[in-house]
Amino acid sequence: xxxxxxxxxxxxxxxxxxxxxxxxxxxxxxxxxxxxxxxxxxxxxxxxxxxxxxxxxxxxxxxxxxxxxxxxxxxxxxxxxxxxxxxxxxxxxxxxxxxxxxxxxxxxxxxxxxxxxxxxxxxxxxx
Amino acid sequence: xxxxxxxxxxxxxxxxxxxxxxxxxxxxxxxxxxxxxxxxxxxxxxxxxxxxxxxxxxxxxxxxxxxxxxxxxxxxxxxxxxxxxxxxxxxxxxxxxxxxxxxxxxxxxxxxxxxxxxxxxxxxxxxxxxxxxxxxxxxxxxxxxxxxxxxxxxxxxxxxxxxxxxxxxxxxxxxxxxxxxxxxxxxxxxxxxxxxxxxxxxxxxxxxxxxxxxxxxxxxxxxxxxxxxxxxxxxxxxxxxxxxxxxxxxxxxxxxxxxxxxxxxxxxxxxxxxxxxxxxxxxxxxxxxxxxxxxxxxxxxxxxxxxxxxxxxxxxxxxxxxxxxxxxxxxxxxxxxxxxxxxxxxxxxxxxxxxxxxxxxxxxxxxxxxxxxxxxxxxx
Lengths: 127, 380
Known about the structure:
The complex is a heterodimer of chains A (about 130) and B (about 375). Chain A has about 130 residues and is mostly helical. Among the domains of chain A are: about 1-55; about 80-110, no CATH class. Chain A has 5 helices and no strands. Chain A is elongated and about 90 Å long. Mean pLDDT of chain A is about 70; it is low at about 1-5. Chain B has helices at about 1-15, 15-20, 20-40, 45-60, 75-85, 90-100, 105-110, 115-120, 120-130, 135-145, 150-160, 165-180, 180-190, 195, 210-225, 230-245, 250-275, 280, 285-310, 335-345, 355-380. The longest helix of chain B is centred in the last third of the chain and has 29 residues, at about 285-310.
């Protein structure tokens, strides 16, 4: 049955394996280098994910250049604008509108903290 | 009348009964034992049932030339076995693993990646011993990878470095993966004090969707740039995870972690089992491989636990690591993490280590793929 066996090692593997057997007969060099590379690879990942995590949780912030800061700031109302908006809202809206805006803002701002939930709300009947 | 008798005699010579040897019977019994253990003990049933039945299929004796054996070119089993031989089943399994794994625990506690790295020392410990036992460097590398506790990686690497040993290596890797609770528990208890077993770890922080999406992209680019030879496994693992986390490829993610991985698991299990034909499998070499595989597992678990203790030397009080999660540095997901949870709860019923142990566990998957890539670049 062995005559049908197709399990052959490629020539490249045989050559490299023979070379390694001569260069590193005890396997110490390959072990040392390989363990170091595994650690380096995972340490690099550790630093990358730590950085991304800190960035995402706001522990560090990317400082934008001055010019960009101005463009970002244009989206935020100034003190006078905020006061004007507040007065206009006060005149035209009731408490329910405030509640809706607050809820929408709350959900929007918390988007980076929570995962997308299943959007299923369980409502229990009051006894 | 004579013709009928001769025909009958000729037919009888073709039957399995006429060609059965003691080795075939032994292998069939091992196959039945695999199935029994999987059903009775629930040990890795998704793998042991196909492998066990494959062993039975592969050890029904037949007459050569009928193109039915797994090693006969062009036979059905041989065509299915190409996925193992050419190494394209393992990356597909990694795609499914990526699509079903939640890496949140690792993203929120990246320091635990190092435990996954430490556990890979088992691979290289077995490599050195295998070299001293007379195996070639390529064979030693393929045998050592059993310590990664990752069946697909073991098959991937052995298909490239030592295809003639693949049956024994795959069966050994899957057997020990099924035996993770039996092998790891005593080592964990031996290497830890009661005080250490009671350490409560800080609850991991919540991870944002954005981080989960960035994780596979950054992870793949960095690891593949360091070890390009691990690209087939790492690429598919991280790609599968991106399908899961992107939120816009739900159908693809569901296929990858559902029907696709199921089909490939069936094919890989049956064909690997089938490849254990008695004349190829029942040799002294296989026994040596089983011994080295066990040793590799023991070293990996030991290094994982000891490294967690070592890390504690640099951790502030309140930020310590429970060394019982060190065993999870091997990539038997999620069995090794479950062992951490169960052993931890033996000493403190309210100490749930599962979520923490998942971090080194998934780091072990990445680590073993990186280790396989390194061995391939040296020897392949």
